[in-house]
Amino acid sequence: MLGRGLAAMLAVLGATIGGALAQSTTPSPTLDAVRARGMLNCGIHTGVAGFALPDSRGVWQGLDVDLCRGLAAAIFNDPSKVRFIPLSSSTRFTALGSGEIDVLFRTSTQTMLRDTTLGLRHVTTYFYDGHGFMVRANLGVTRVRDMADATICLIQGTTNEQVTADYFRSVNVRFQPVVFERTDQAVAALQAGRCDSFGTDASQLAGVRSAMPNPREWTILPERFSKEPYGAYVRRGDDNWFDIVRWYTTAVIEAEEQGITRANAEEMRRTSTNPNTRRLLGVTPELGQSLKLDPLWAYNAIRAIGNYGELYERHMGESTPVALPRGPNNLHTNGGLLYALPMR
């Protein structure tokens, strides 16, 4: 009896392990489609400084844009093999669900209902933000509670609509929402005087203000009314693709934790004896193998776009027009919230 029982247990264990191994080797239809196409289709914002905005030559620049380029480099070793697809807040998730894009890097807050009801999965947080309001500096407004009966510009299909309504209801103050599909429409209405304030995430307010003719005329009020953790989104049902986007994003943060930059990645790959660095940069191949990517996937991405700190300083840092302090988007070792999961 004991022998038959042990044999049965071993059979169940073997079936479980076999099933797990089979699942781990299941090909990714999204990765297969990207490779066959020779191009990554990446959903981005229609235009906000710091995240996604064409420069004077018409070339897209920004944190989200570079995250798209880095993912293309991880897959193809070529950051140019990406097609940017600008999407409004109201169309972004539909575009992803329909297969128009492969991944969404577009200032998209991770929420429970988005994760559980849209047929999509948020991946991992790469930017922490909070809802705020911007007003004309000469109004003398110092807190949002004082904006009774204010007309507020909002973007359709964002968490900011609900956050604004919830706050004013909680303090029993009336306001008048004016809803637009795109950020540029809301900004034009704000500058034309149709709205007293613009309500959206503070980082986007900073980006919007930086592109205005006279940024000093506008004040971003210091209060924050929500948690807005941005993460990439992918379709449900493709675990390998989810893993690729998740661990690629993590690798960019991990590179900053290890002090790996665009400039020194090649030297560190040649000379480092740190096992974590050797794994990340593909000297030992197991990380790439687990994702069904080239062993140099993370090395190629870092060489193309740099680590997270480099991305932030290039697009949001104090030397840029956005000039947004890192705050919660600093590494956990520097008082922020960014924390790379162990890559081993």
Please summarize what this structure is.
With 344 residues, the chain is α/β, with parallel strands linked by helices.
Describe the structure.
- The chain is of the alpha/beta class.
- The chain has 2 domains: 32-128 and 230-324, D-Maltodextrin-Binding Protein, domain 2, CATH 3.40.190; 131-227, D-Maltodextrin-Binding Protein, domain 2.
- It has 14 helices and 12 strands.
- It has a 5-stranded mixed beta sheet, sandwiched between helices. A 3-stranded parallel beta sheet has the order 4-1-5. A two-stranded antiparallel sheet has the order 2-3.
- The protein is globular, with a radius of gyration of 23 Å.
- The two termini are 41 Å apart.
- 42% of the residues are buried.
Write the layout of secondary structure elements.
Layout: H1 2-24, H2 29-37, E1 40-45, E2 53-54, E3 60-61, H3 63-76, E4 82-87, H4 92-98, E5 103-104, H5 112-117, E6 120-129, E7 131-136, E8 150-155, H6 159-170, E9 175-180, H7 183-191, E10 197-201, H8 202-210, E11 218-220, E12 228-235, H9 239-258, H10 265-271, H11 275-280, H12 286-291, H13 297-305, H14 308-315
Parallel strand pairs: 1-4, 1-5, 8-9, 8-10
Antiparallel strand pairs: 2-3, 6-12, 7-10, 7-11
Helix pairs in contact: 3-13, 9-13
Calculate the terminal CA-CA distance, rounded to whole Å. Answer: 41 Å
**Could you list the spans in which at least 5 consecutive residues all have pLDDT below 50?**
5-24
Number of E-state strands = 12
Strand content: 15-25%
Work out the radius of gyration: 23 Å
- Side by side, the strands of the main sheet go 9-8-10-7-11
Structural class: alpha/beta
Categorize the overall geometry.
Answer: globular
Provide the residue-averaged pLDDT: 92
- Tally of alpha and pi helices: 14
The CATH homologous superfamily of the largest domain corresponds to Periplasmic binding protein-like II
| CATH topological fold name of the largest domain | D-Maltodextrin-Binding Protein, domain 2
Major sheet characteristics: 5 strands, mixed
Helix content estimate? 40-55%
CATH 2nd-level architecture of the largest domain: 3-Layer(aba) Sandwich
CATH class categorisation of the largest domain? Alpha Beta
Structural domains: how many: 2
Order of helices and strands: HHEEEHEHEHEEEHEHEHEEHHHHHH
Pfam families: SBP_bac_3 (PF00497)
Domain Solute-binding protein family 3/N-terminal: 39-268
Protein name: General L-amino acid transport system substrate-binding protein
Organism: Neoroseomonas alkaliterrae
